[in-house]
Specification:
By secondary structure, the chain is of the alpha+beta class. The chain has helices at about 5-30, 125-160, 180, 190-220, 225-235, and strands spanning about 40-50, 55-60, 65-70, 85-90, 95-105. It has a five-stranded mixed β-barrel with strand order 1-2-3-5-4.
Length: about 250
């Protein structure tokens, strides 16, 4: 091999070795750019675009803005122009996505007693923020609990038809939580029972995603005891919201 050819090959190897870390770094940066912080906001719905999955809202400052539904939301449900809503927004430079949406006037705020031990002189602003967070989190949990009532009906049908062996749920929880914990026994030999099990997972997963998102935001301003009390009030007290879903069964 000539000396010129050897020099060309060595140069190519050096260029590849130096380019690789730069390419890997670019990939990491690109992957992290989709993430954004989550915040609560009260707003009035100005317009709904079902096909485009967007909302035009008037935010708490009275300014109109357009926001996009996040992928974990199936749709708008009964939200329409003129409704007052509580939104959970994931935000980033130049974009905002709605990860949950609840009618703020549909649910009374949960009654959560303030602890005197948390009171301190000059802490009125912090208390006000905590109260707003409790009300927003309570409204979200109440909305998700209404969806969970439907899962309860599927669970009851599944238990009676499929010889399910599971203990009674503890206070403040729902029986179907055990399906994600792997502690369920059932006769799944029939197609009907497999279909009911799959329905249970299909309906439960969006609720789990909604609770996970709501709690991620609530933990920034609420104490664990406040979060647990609100969850218990609506039968949603569970520490398994982030569990991996069970594998669905062939019908």
């Amino acid at each position: 091999m000539s000396s010129v050819r050897r020099l060309v090959l060595v140069s190519a190897v050096v260029l590849c070795a130096t380019a690789l870390p730069a390419a890997e770094g670019a990939t990491i940066l690109k992957g992290s750019s989709d993430d954004g912080p989550s915040t609560y906001t009260n707003a009035e719905v100005v317009a709904v675009d079902v096909i485009g999955r967007t909302l035009v809202i008037r935010n708490a400052r009275g300014v109109e803005e357009k926001v996009q539904l996040d992928d974990n939301l199936a749709g708008f449900a009964d939200i329409k122009a003129g409704d007052r809503v509580v939104l959970t927004l994931r935000t980033g430079p130049g974009w905002a996505r709605v990860s949950s949406i609840v009618k703020s006037r549909a649910v009374a705020p949960p009654k959560v007693a303030a602890s005197p031990s948390r009171s301190a002189p000059g802490a009125s602003a912090d208390n006000s923020q905590a109260l707003a967070s409790r009300e927003a989190f309570g409204a979200q949990v109440a909305s998700l609990a209404a969806q969970a009532d439907r899962v309860d009906r599927i669970w009851n049908e599944f238990r009676s038809a499929c010889d399910v062996k599971a203990g009674n749920p503890r206070e403040g929880a729902r029986g179907w939580f055990v399906a994600w914990e792997g502690s369920i026994g059932a006769d799944l030999s029939g197609g009907t029972c497999r279909d009911l099990f799959n329905q249970l997972i299909d309906l439960g997963e969006p609720i789990k995603a909604g609770m996970t998102a709501a709690e991620d935001v609530a933990r920034r301003t609420l104490l664990p005891g406040d979060i647990r009390e609100i969850r218990r009030q609506y039968g949603m007290d569970w520490d398994g919201w982030a569990l991996t879903p069970p594998q669905q069964l062939e019908r």
